[in-house]
Amino acid sequence: MAGRFWLGWSAGFGYLSDLGVGTLLVLLLHNRPLWLVLPVMLVWCVFTLSNAELIGAVGRMPEASDLKYLTDPQFLSHSTQGSGLTNSGLALALAAGVLAYLIGGRRVPEPRRLKLSGYWMALPAALLVGHAVNQYAYPSEDDQWKQFNLTHKLLAEGFNAGQLRLEDWLDGDTPEVAPDIAGLTQLDLNGTRLLAGSGKARNVLIITLEGIPGAYLAPNRAAIGSSYQEDLMPRLGQWANRAMNTPDYVLHSHQTIRGLYAMLCGDYDKFDSGTPKGVELLNNQVRNLECLPAQMKRHGFSTHFLQGAGLRFMAKDKIMPHMGFDKTLGRDWFKNKPYLEFPWGMDDKAYFEGALSYVKQLRQKKQPWMLTLLTVGTHQPYSAPQEYLDKYPTAKGAAVGYLDDAVADFLAGLEKQGVLKDTLVIVTSDESHGIEKVRLASAWGFNLVLAPEQAQLPALKRGTYGHLDLSASVLDYFDLPVSTSLSGRSLFRDYSTGREMLSYTNGLLRQHDGKSEFIECDFQQVCRRYASEGFIANSARYLGRFSGKQARLIAQRAALLDQSLLGGQLGQQYQFATKERIKLKEHNSDDWADNLIGAQYLELPKGTRTTVTLKIRAVRMDKNGAKMLLKTKEFDRDVAVAIPDLPLLKTGKPLTLSFTFDNPATRKAFSFHLLGEGRGAIEITDFSVITEPMEPELLAAQQDEEELPPLPH
To answer: CB neighbours of 517 closer than 8 A, spacing ≥ 6?
Structure first.
């Protein structure tokens, strides 16, 4: 409970959970022998510390499938390399507690020890039942770790899983009704047009701001009556007053690549940690032709993607061209000097100055164009000039304020160049980095439309929309054919009825039925019902909760939308090498920003074998050569895989490596990180990741081996 207070996780449900589970633990271990008490205490310490580390790193609690890592010394040692434990104070406090017990806790003579009857077990039972009853009556929207102790969460998951199995057993062979997802996937262009015929613009510019929630814009807050008052983006808010603004705008998931896929391909990305559909798109030669850049290209537009970061992370150097961009450019394109040293790439002011010059170049050509921009400055770790750091209480707030000035200056520059007179401009964000204690902030996006015929568009666009709708909206504005493989509605039409919408952020699956009911389901497949006219709202009236088959039906709808672009095939083959010349750094400081390859957040299915082939040659190198290192991570944390050491890379001696590893259990959010240190440049000619089903005999032998008891040391 003290750790909860120190970590800033204070919440009534959390303290009640800690007290209930802690009391249960004390009673179970009271007067037990040291050989039993000490191992349980040590395991408890590992769980508590690992929970804090994972929440601090990736914003989620461990799952039951992670337990093998939480008790794995190799995993823990790898996870704390370099910067060490984030919560070292908590580690010291736990160690001090164990030491204090060993020194003084066993010194009470046996006759004087307090005897506790079994009736005392009613105390933790009452506390945990009280937690459940209060959650039912007064549901909280706090993060999971603020409501649950880790042990309590795992017990609750196990209880709910058992309850579902019991329901299935009682139902016998009763077939389940397949969930209907037609309302989520249909293309709906039946609304009334806001504009008669094609729009007047000849170009389209999509400005994507990293991680910005809709709550940062004052007009959005006013439209839904938000209680959040901090005005971090006043200048963009002024532009929102000039634009067609959509306050009820939904982000469907976290991660940039998932947001870009939904925006540009008119499809929900996965509602879990599986391989992003943008990565799977690389192995699909049909669906990519339906993405917005490819369609605009077929209609005579030149298509361009420009971001402030390097392109290799999450394979955008391959994914964006595959979606149909003629030119895909990143950090290396910019020749103007940055105002800040930022590990991910260009700071926002320098980025938009470069982007303004890029727009000027496009306008000198006769061909209409589509340009998609992506900033990076509001990505963690947040960075801003000292004057902004002095002005705002946090680095995050300073970075957002810096972006606000940068994007407002950029829009003013576009207006000065005359771009707004002949270009459809859409300002949005890829995802939301969330705001503490603001309802639905992690799913609250924004969409501002600036068009030549602004007077004909409403200032506030009513209705629920999301990234799913952006591709259909752009095509509809230009009165171009919209492929039925796209989903969504058009922002340039009015609809007399609501529509269904789904989102998965911060571990919560949320659904609006398009009428007046909003449902939010947690990790226990316990769903809460609310009365809410729209998806994004400052508050909603609680109607009750449900679980069991009705809750599972919502999860099944999400699973159907998750359907892979690989057509259900178990084998996967990805090629991440681009053969571009890469200049090395003399020293690496960040596994993510310094990564040389884009193989991130893959899902490797259970019962498969993965083969990785790597070929690197030195293009230009000094006599000392380059040190290369290949690391693997799962859920953003280091995980041990048997990777051979990479030899020193030297001129004339290409590095070739091939290795395999098995996946006895499904690996999710699995990432490769290739790092290099040296003076010179390299070319990665091959980085293939092939995952194939294991031979049945090998899989059976491996399973038998796992069931054998460990050999003595």
So the answer is: 529, 530, 531, 532, 543
Token pair, residue 266, equals 């008119």
Instruction: Sketch the domain layout of the chain as residue ranges.
Output: 2-171, 182-561, 572-707
Calpha distance 358→417 (Å, rounded) = 12
Express each pLDDT in 151-190 by its tens digit. Answer: 888 888 777 777 777 776 776 655 566 788 888 889 999 9
H-type helices in 30-149, by residue range? 34-58, 67-70, 73-79, 88-100, 122-137, 144-147
Q: How far apart are CA 268 and CA 157, in angstroms?
A: 27
- Class of the domain covering 572-707: mainly beta
pLDDT for res 172: 63
pTM: 0.79
What the block records as the tokens of 452 is 């030549």
Quick one: fold of 182-561?
Alkaline Phosphatase, subunit A (3.40.720)
Integer Cα distance of 389 and 212 in angstroms: 18
Alpha helix (H) residue ranges in 248-394: 256-265, 277-280, 292-298, 316-323, 348-363, 386-391
Closest C-alpha to 309, from 350, 281, 365, 274? 350
What average pLDDT is seen over the chain?
Answer: 87
- φ, ψ for residue 619, nearest 5 deg: -85, -40
Mean predicted confidence (pLDDT) in 45-64: 75
Which two tokens mark 287?
């669906």
Closest CA to 316 of 356, 261, 382: 261
State the pLDDT confidence band at 79, using cuts at 50, 70 and 90: very low
